[in-house]
Input
Amino acid sequence: MLTGIVLLLVVGLLLLMAEVFLVPGVTFVGIAGIMLMVVGIWMAYSEYGQPIGHYILIASLSLTIIVLLRAFRSGFWGNFALKSTLKDAHSPEPGPSETRNPISIGMSARAISRLRPKGMAEINGEIREVELRDGWAEPGDELIVTEIDFHRIFVQIKPINPPTHV
Output
């Protein structure tokens, strides 16, 4: 019976590790791992009594914590992790705070795609996703940056004859 308890605990721990490091989200794998460990601990209590059940409970919890901490720190599981990212041809580059060429209010821009109201524009030599406050813009239209809100850049169509101050 001890072999069955140990087998339940080990398989449960392996499934729990697979859940944490390999399977994204909360899935059947992790739930099954936890259930196997609980059943193993319950069997230890029912078969060997309270003192041995306590020892197995403490040992299994300690072993689970130690194994998970060592696995996190070792970097071994990084070999299984996806490190690349998918990029769309029209995806914006990083936000204004992360760019090499800073973007500020009042800068000129040129529409690269249709803005209805969102689209792509070239600002300071970089192609960025922008949002037009009013109306629509066609590719090639001249724009002005009017607001920067975190990673969103708001623009308006550049007036043909800017107002002059007297």
The mean pLDDT is 83.
